[in-house]
Design goal:
Number of strands: 24
Oligomer: single chain
Strand order of the largest sheet: 1-2-24-23-22
Helix content: under 10%
Shape: globular
Length: about 260
């Protein structure tokens, strides 16, 4: 799959956003979530396993995989959630096809299952008043967070509600925009979402700013976006975009850089 650089214009006068696909990797199974462990390591969650990849320049290579230890459970539509614990160099994984949540760490180039729990603990999200943590409602693809349900939850009050409502910083998007079930947060006030169309419709990645009716940037994808992750930097960011295609599942690393027009 070729690298396809393009220019996306932001609203900030005199500046644009350069988008370049840096690396592409075929995945072994449909991705449920993806996360940057650090600048060079990524985690991919599938229904039954966790996968560790290394990013070096324009190359993604698989280092390790480990089956999720929980007992199999039934759910109509597969869904999953990763939550990195940066200070510990670890990551919680939750799949609605496996019982409970698992904390993974990395030893050298190998994944290690550290501990299991009934749910991702609230401390991993900085939640208060939600002692039950974050878990899937039985048999569904909906996450239970306190008294609320989400298709996707990113912590800090941001997520996608079951009807597609985009929630940022605990409040529904003022512009009333809807999102798909993939979401990532950038540190400059932007959120990244998938499109809100039906599963069999063409999909896209959108960069949205809270309160603005129009997307600041968007681009189509060759398949349904299943997961997004963002690693912000100084005037730049890297996105991990995981999607399904007719030929199989794909992970792309997309670099975004501000540039003066």
């Amino acid at each position: 799959m070729p690298v396809l650089p393009s220019l996306l214009l932001l609203a900030a006068q005199g500046f644009g956003l350069e988008r370049e696909v840096r690396a592409v990797q075929l995945l072994e199974a449909s991705p449920l979530d993806v996360a940057f462990l650090d600048a060079e390591r990524l985690l991919v969650l599938t229904a039954d396993a966790m996968w560790l990849y290394r990013l070096q320049g324009e190359t993604l290579s698989r280092l390790s995989s480990l089956a999720l230890p929980g007992a199999p459970v039934k759910a109509r539509a597969a869904a999953g959630l990763l939550r990195v614990v940066t200070q510990e160099g670890a990551c919680w994984a939750l799949s609605n096809r496996r019982a409970g949540a698992t904390l993974f760490s990395v030893e050298g180039e190998r994944l290690v299952a550290v501990v299991g729990a009934e749910a991702i603990p609230p401390t991993a999200f900085g939640l208060h008043g939600s002692p039950a943590g974050v878990r899937f409602l039985p048999g569904t693809n909906l996450l239970a967070v306190g008294d609320s349900a989400y298709l996707r939850f990113e912590g800090e009050g941001s997520g996608v509600r079951p009807d597609g409502t985009l929630v940022v910083d605990g409040e529904p998007d003022p512009a009333g925009r809807r999102a798909g079930d993939a979401l990532a947060i950038l540190d400059d006030g932007l959120v990244v979402t998938s499109g809100d169309g039906p599963p069999d419709a063409p999909d896209e990645v959108l960069l949205l700013r809270r309160g603005q009716a129009e997307a600041e940037a968007s681009w189509p994808t060759p398949g349904r976006v299943r997961a997004l992750a963002a690693r912000p930097g100084d005037g730049a960011a890297s996105l991990a975009v995981a999607f399904d295609t007719a030929a199989g599942a794909v992970l792309e690393i997309v670099d975004l850089r501000r540039s003066r027009r």
